[in-house]
Amino acid sequence: MRVEDIFHQPPPPNEHPCWEDPVLPSVLKRILPESVLQAIEPDLTRLGHDLINIVRPLAAQVRLPTITHYNAWGERIDLLQTSEGWRTLKNLAVKEGYISNAYERKYHEYSRVYMFAKCMMMTGDFHVIMCPFGMTDGAARLIELFGNERMKDEILPRLISRDPADSYLCGQWMTESPGGSDVSRTETKATPTTTSSTDLGAAYLLDGFKWFSSAAEGNMSVALARTGDLASGSGALSLFVVPIRFQSFPTPLSNNIQIHRLKDKVGTHGVPTAELSLNSARGWLIGGLNEGVKTIAPMLNITRIHSAIHSIGSLQRCLSIARSYATVRTVAGGKLLESIPLHMENLANITILYAALTHFTFGAVSLLGKSECNVATREEQARLRLLTPAVKGFTALKAVTAMEECMAALGGQGYMEETGFGRLIRDAMVEKIWEGTVDVMALDLIRATRDGYTLESFCQWAAKIISRSPVKSDALLLLQDVINQLPSLFRENF
Amino acid sequence: MRVEDIFHQPPPPNEHPCWEDPVLPSVLKRILPESVLQAIEPDLTRLGHDLINIVRPLAAQVRLPTITHYNAWGERIDLLQTSEGWRTLKNLAVKEGYISNAYERKYHEYSRVYMFAKCMMMTGDFHVIMCPFGMTDGAARLIELFGNERMKDEILPRLISRDPADSYLCGQWMTESPGGSDVSRTETKATPTTTSSTDLGAAYLLDGFKWFSSAAEGNMSVALARTGDLASGSGALSLFVVPIRFQSFPTPLSNNIQIHRLKDKVGTHGVPTAELSLNSARGWLIGGLNEGVKTIAPMLNITRIHSAIHSIGSLQRCLSIARSYATVRTVAGGKLLESIPLHMENLANITILYAALTHFTFGAVSLLGKSECNVATREEQARLRLLTPAVKGFTALKAVTAMEECMAALGGQGYMEETGFGRLIRDAMVEKIWEGTVDVMALDLIRATRDGYTLESFCQWAAKIISRSPVKSDALLLLQDVINQLPSLFRENF
Amino acid sequence: MRVEDIFHQPPPPNEHPCWEDPVLPSVLKRILPESVLQAIEPDLTRLGHDLINIVRPLAAQVRLPTITHYNAWGERIDLLQTSEGWRTLKNLAVKEGYISNAYERKYHEYSRVYMFAKCMMMTGDFHVIMCPFGMTDGAARLIELFGNERMKDEILPRLISRDPADSYLCGQWMTESPGGSDVSRTETKATPTTTSSTDLGAAYLLDGFKWFSSAAEGNMSVALARTGDLASGSGALSLFVVPIRFQSFPTPLSNNIQIHRLKDKVGTHGVPTAELSLNSARGWLIGGLNEGVKTIAPMLNITRIHSAIHSIGSLQRCLSIARSYATVRTVAGGKLLESIPLHMENLANITILYAALTHFTFGAVSLLGKSECNVATREEQARLRLLTPAVKGFTALKAVTAMEECMAALGGQGYMEETGFGRLIRDAMVEKIWEGTVDVMALDLIRATRDGYTLESFCQWAAKIISRSPVKSDALLLLQDVINQLPSLFRENF
Amino acid sequence: MRVEDIFHQPPPPNEHPCWEDPVLPSVLKRILPESVLQAIEPDLTRLGHDLINIVRPLAAQVRLPTITHYNAWGERIDLLQTSEGWRTLKNLAVKEGYISNAYERKYHEYSRVYMFAKCMMMTGDFHVIMCPFGMTDGAARLIELFGNERMKDEILPRLISRDPADSYLCGQWMTESPGGSDVSRTETKATPTTTSSTDLGAAYLLDGFKWFSSAAEGNMSVALARTGDLASGSGALSLFVVPIRFQSFPTPLSNNIQIHRLKDKVGTHGVPTAELSLNSARGWLIGGLNEGVKTIAPMLNITRIHSAIHSIGSLQRCLSIARSYATVRTVAGGKLLESIPLHMENLANITILYAALTHFTFGAVSLLGKSECNVATREEQARLRLLTPAVKGFTALKAVTAMEECMAALGGQGYMEETGFGRLIRDAMVEKIWEGTVDVMALDLIRATRDGYTLESFCQWAAKIISRSPVKSDALLLLQDVINQLPSLFRENF
């Protein structure tokens, strides 16, 4: 008995991540004008083929980053090295316009839909690239909204560049050890200096310790720091642009920043997440003094959409493998797995969930696109505000369990690393946590409804939708009831 | 700013895995006579302390096993080496009587409850030790039921030994590449020989390729092989005892067995799972010729209970960490996390699920104990038959998602490997797959009801239970209805 | 006491690998006409800077290659993956013209001196690139001498290409397990086929097992195989061109070749060395039938020169570090290490050895250049033949111990991996073994003298050299005496 | 062609490390009285078998130690973990009486010969265990000579214990970054405290940074620190006993010591060598104030003998493999390698060197034994003083190159890690550096001759030896001449 002679399961064929998906084409058709859809079709087609042929094989090269604290001669260097695969993916994502597709606004208010459709297609093979790129996206928006001229001239073009040699990645440093996601307890202090060392404005010196710093390999970060006393809580926080590896700064991490350790995370293994200390690192104020929390809000809304896209994109990939496997695996009697009703019922249930989450998310994406192009109505602005935490929290809540069902649909093969479920699930688990847990989202949802208008206009909109729906019933009353009980019902009944 | 000077979160204190658990004491109190509970109490108390002080720190030493196929001189050796931590855990489990507690039957029909209570306590820190030990348990039962005298004298005492120097581990080799969990397509052939090389009886020579072979480090295995033609399906399969590393056999894997590779699994990293080829490996028949599927059934029932225990034990550990963390983590305003209602509502919901799964599982355990001591009524035998696949499938279906909620209850810290959730979740994911997926369990549940008696007697029993319950209502009708729709409702509504 | 505050040794500055070397400029000046020296000077200058700035930092990316034998679905794939650093180095070496500098013959008979001067400069930072490239060099020479037209048209241009996308690497498969370096015991059989599958000629099918197969990542190999019976020893061996990854062949290793394992070597860690089985792999005859040993000889002579260059280039790098370190390290009394006589005496002794080995080696290189351009006299041809094994064996015998002295010249710092000595020494150790041990070289030296002419002409040449030297004495008599005792004196007294 | 079917070289048989060695038995016979030899013979026999059967297979478990700087919650812990193999070897060495054989003095002045004969036998398989144990040996001697009563009662018995549960390992912290081996530039300061915290005497607080700290896993260390100003050089250094993990101290490394990193060494991979900072670590004076250099001298003399034993023991093992291989490897014509004169001439040359180094070293060992038992004459004391640096430096200078010749004697197989040469050579390379380079030894040799008596008495002794020798000649004059030129001749002509 030679292993060469035994049965080998034919591998499941690769599906096109857009056109062979059961949901994405209908989402695009529903939202986009036909002209836009026709315009982007060739790019989506090409991207799908590139994902299968070029990107997917890079998976084996994505490994843990490493940190070397000292050189041979005893000098502290904090040399951070990411893996070959990760660096290749970053360059490919820049070239693909992962962020710039949104900022070039070639398709006006539909640009965000186009951009996030590509992001979703890329999710399965890009190993959580949305982490640094989502933050970069948010930072670009902040500079667009609040940056000074110099920032708009020097930094913004690099954040949205399509040229890897020229582009900047940006991190977001909020979390500190005592407060966790509660920024009101931020301890990092920012001290103003009198002289302006660059055209970015008068520099502050930041001192503190940031506990979860993703994109530690990036070129810059935005960081919350205290510009008043601790008792003032989040009312004395300001937001700063902090260079890490600017072309105009001499050496890596020379901005008085130390990497204490790389986090030993359950997933997102290509991404270097660090504990950092700022030891009088220079930073430049963005937005108003003591208005840090308000200033950073648009960034958080963008990263939360990225998070939702990561959840549904990960589920998409798992479901695709499971669906594809059912077309090549034979079971008793020589029948294909796809002919077994019980098996297909399972996949159908997952598909329904996947469809719901995808339409839900792209609803918010569509509103974001309108908002950024200033064509959103007041009602749409309010709806976007309400839906953003809901989309982020709900996709995170539902996607991983469904992915685990897809894994089980391959039996023992699903539990092998080579089929990819393990990595996808480990990575997707972070979405319940990153950028705010489900509880944090639920509380943000309440906060969004406090103005009186947001909730009311949402209910009116929902009533209209429901009245148009074939399944009318008493859903409207139920909806009102449900909303009244937010957020304790958030988890189970949203 | 020195890292030494920053805030360090005090670590969550360790809870006693039995007495500080919110469910296990009440389960034991409900099932066990007071005399038995008093007798085992000191052992459970000591075990809890040993788990915290001795076993838990071993985690860092549990690593992937390695295989060396050739020695320096080109000879094929297939040298399998497991990690220090894994070897230590195995020895500790043997000394703890992981299996022998059940077979010594010191507490008669309650021995299984005692034994599985210990197994459950150990789950969180024993890194899927239930995999090889569960199969060893099943093999012990097979020999008790069907083994010849020589097997009972030579092998059984080692399978249930408390002495690591003397004990045997046993694997279970069923899965083959073409058929997966469908044993009817087993290709491995067994050819009888005329001479008896040992007192175990006349040997067969087995030739084939086993695709998932857990416990590849073990001393023996039970293996299904074909003793008739392929067209006869599972009706021409017999069961064999196959030595790997018997004391009476000269060298490792000398029984004409080759390890082709170790599986690259998503979890259960300490456990060596292999692809094996049998190249005229000697095996001895256990049970009747061509009755392999029937013979192995008692083993599968036992490993399924082990699987359920692993699911609930893993959830127990995750919930314990989350509960404990809430007692030391402060949030805004200096309040402890355990004083935040929204947070505690989440933990309470998980606890309700955990309680339900634990009572459910130990109900089956209690029946197993009675059955093995021959004090089970016919109705109890039938109920055990019905519940075994349900317990296995349902715990697997529900535990992991709840564990992921526990992880998120620590925020970013939960996603760090050091807090342990990642490993526990990766390991527990296997339970949806190992020993039969949820679909396989559902189909087995139907099979169990085919005799007419099993389902009817179960409904009568359930009706009696429900009628005693304060929430009488129309639950009985619902139950009948639900059962009629088995198994399509299995996943969602069981 | 913070580590940031303690003393850090300033790192030793980088010396230019040619112009700051104490020996290489004088070698080039002695051998090359001034016009050639002027012509190549800018290239050597640039290369030196590139080595320091571009190539040296790649060291951390050179790691062990990996082999994956099976894909997820059980199919044998033997996927060989080399490290990022190694792949980058290979591409850089191709672009640098590592081989093509010799074959373009831009500087006529001096092309080899130019080419090997560059190879020597590159040695310290190219991690044994000479292994696959040296064999590729030899293969190019074989095809130049013995290849058919098709080989000259299709293969030769790729072997000497400067374009990484287009170039071929070639291995050399001689060693088998029973015979080691004794090719007379080659067991691999070549069976002729009647049909010609390509224009390379009628194919043979090769079956056998090659024990040390360097450049397993290459595109082709030359392999010795038996075309007569075993009793005929090396008289029944022929040489074959064996494709591995030709552009005209479909998939990696598709030529019926299996990689059984990658060798676990003491050094040369970037290089994938494999145990290979040929299972009816196609090969094409090069050179005459049953004339394999004679045919391969020019290849061996070239790889032996590469070996010598690797020995002296490795010593050059170690000596450079030690010399440079002495200019920055202060000792008692604040004096620099370079002012301590005892220390500098050690370095001077090593430098004398290094100078001798370098002049010795480039003497042979110069003759090789003449020979390849057909301007060598009969006496020079004979001298090249005699010196080739001597140069290879003697540099290997002397270099490593001198490198270890350089390591010790940095004290404890020399024993740290970061300073590079460990890697250089481990790699250089292979030169005592690879392409024939010192004993094999000694025996080849005897073989070279058997024709009567070679030894006599060498002695006359040597006598002339000595008579010109200021230290005339009775060296001539000694020389005669020494040569008479070859090779038992080879090791101790050459 | 299956790999199972190809030729496998039979592995070289294991030789008994004492009785089958070509030199050690004659050394023991020459030095020891017959009664002692008879008494120790069974122990040496047993040890040899244990080395082959128990210790040698542990090699695969000796790996790099790891350091974890922070726990999950951000607290600095500097958790040092050594590999399973290394821990097992340490325990075996303690049980074997690696150190205690010398201090129990069961065989009076011959105890050191007995003890070091065992150490030498163990060298090949104990992975540089001499590093921490040699320092522990030296520390035991220091306490025997200079310790207070409390140190003799509490510490000494643990340093020479045979019980792993009870024994202490001791490091030696001298080297600092600025001075390297030049202790006169020691910067670590010791500040006296007024109160005595333990019975060891009044504590000092040590502050500084130690650059090479071997045995970082140990229980204590002896450390040089400055008790006067820097200008006083080595005249203001004192020696301190510094606890790391005493049973009376609460937690690992609690004595205000931080491990900044583990050294990335070329060899000695099992041994944790660290960069340490002392941040007011408590230490207790041993020997006189400001007499640190004088106090530590006996320790250095002992560690230097250990170093020499490591050099010759490593060579012994390499030579044994090469010799053994020659008995099983066949070459052309079916002859064994051991029948090839050229090959055996090489091995004979190495054996002569090995014999010389072994007799040389054990001469010093014999004198050390006499000295410690107070039976050495003044002339023998002087000779021991003179020979100690010579033995250390000379064995280091000669052993590695000879080991590399042994490696090459196996051809390509010697370059494979599995045959062990690589590890042995990497480890032995440290002996040219550790405890003083050859230059430092040479300078110490001069220092030893400064008293006028030492050199003269040595020459008289040497003259006597030479006059007894059959090869009288004018060796005596030569000797006188050579000694006059010490140490410039040390390296080349000793």
From TrEMBL, chains A, B, C, D:
Domain Acyl-CoA dehydrogenase/oxidase C-terminal spans what residues? Answer: 290-447
One MF term from GO for this chain?
Answer: acyl-CoA dehydrogenase activity
User: Which positions fall inside the Adaptive response protein AidB N-terminal domain?
Assistant: 59-162
InterPro entries for this protein: Acyl-CoA_dehydrogenase-like, Acyl-CoA_Oxase/DH_mid-dom, AcylCo_DH-like_C, AcylCo_DH/oxidase_C, AcylCoA_DH/oxidase_NM_dom_sf, AidB_N
Tell me which residues make up the Acyl-CoA oxidase/dehydrogenase middle domain. Answer: 172-279
| Swiss-Prot/TrEMBL keywords | FAD, Flavoprotein, Oxidoreductase
Cofactor(s), names only, from the UniProt record: FAD
Q: Does the keyword Flavoprotein apply?
A: yes
Which N-terminal residues, if any, form the signal peptide? none
One Pfam match, given by its short name, reads Acyl-CoA_dh_1
Query: Gene3D superfamilies in the record, alphabetically?
Result: 2.40.110.20, 6.10.250.600, Butyryl-CoA Dehydrogenase, subunit A, domain 3
- Taxonomy, superkingdom: Eukaryota
- Which family, according to UniProt? Belongs to the acyl-CoA dehydrogenase family.
Q: What is this protein called?
A: Acyl-CoA dehydrogenase NM domain-like protein
Q: Identify the species of origin.
A: Mycena sanguinolenta
